[in-house]
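Section handout 9: paired folding examples.
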Amino acid sequence: VPISSRQAFPLPSLPRKQPTVLVVCGPAQNGAIGLVCARHLRIFDYEPTIFYPKRSPDPLYRDFTTQCEKMDIPFLSYLPTEVQLINDAYNAVVDAVLGAEAEAGEGREPCATILATLKHVRIPIVSLDVPSGWDVEAGSSGGISPDVLVSLSAPKRCARRFLGRQHFVAGRFLPYDVQKKFELNPPEYPGTECVVAL
């Protein structure tokens, strides 16, 4: 996800005095995006912690993991099933578990247990691209209910069912030929921002 400023990852609900964020990453592309997100959060003086239980063997994803480790971002060895522990320790959760590429992945472990836990947290959840457990076309079918959705490239069809507080799109980086091919009508991005509120 290209990042250019503090607004690049929109977490306005986070107080600056305890900017703790739990980034929960799945094994596929959305998990890799979560790793990049955690790295950028650290750059902007947030305090991310990563839960990445099923690490991908992909060399690029391994590089993202190494970058996070070199930035002293802690990795949890397990996700507490006691939801109050998560609510007390963090100000927000970034959902990078599943994504647009997921097909019923929420039924397999470790995703099923993660989603069962995330459904009960009371702190804000920020989903990247597609909320975990949602069908990319139809929307929610028992998945999580995020407070914030950050659509990557362009909103997916399921975003029409998003009822949270804020919806952002990060797609300024899309080449014009891709925008034209898929008849995307991107929003105006102010200044040098790579993310815009919808």
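Moving on to protein 2 of 2.
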Amino acid sequence: MPIVKYPRATEPLWHEWDRKAQKCGLRHTVYAVNGDQYTGEWLDNLKHGKGTQVWKCTEAIYSGDWKFGKRDGYGSYSIPDPITKEYKKVYTGWWKNDQKCGYGTTFYPGGERYEGEWNGGLRSGWGRMYYRDGSIYEGQWLEDQPNGQGMLRLPNENRYEGGWKDGKKHGPGKFFYLDKGQLFEGIWAADIPKSGILIDFGRDEAPAPTQYPIPKV
């Protein structure tokens, strides 16, 4: 009985090429069509694991964790100084779904700095903000604004402790006028004191106390 030999089925060559093209594991620098470049780990053709991305348009650099093509985990984002061209950090901390989320520190132009919690790329939760004029706010935030309970300390050491809403003093609060040796305690609305009492507080240590003490009621 004659033996019939059938030709062995061969896999199309493009299948092999496609397998080689799929990025998985650690890879050298991969360049995108727009000039962006990424060096690091991949999974199923997506950035996943540790890696560094450089954007050609802004020359910004992100170095840290990735998850399925998005910044997710711990990492730092830096941009070049327009004059010196040296890289300076803009944000260092936690990310989720390509946005700041969790605890992190952001460095703003002019020396301002925020250290605290983020959610969806906005300051939300507890945090401390160092302003350009020397003021410091420490307390609760919501959607990038002081909201809840917090303390604002001014450059002259005067301070406000109390409620905040939409970035303004709101609700019960205390304002310590340490330069004059007085304390105002009352209710605030949209940064304006509506009612309360003013008493002497630390008058003997104040650098510029009022001429006459406030009489007791």
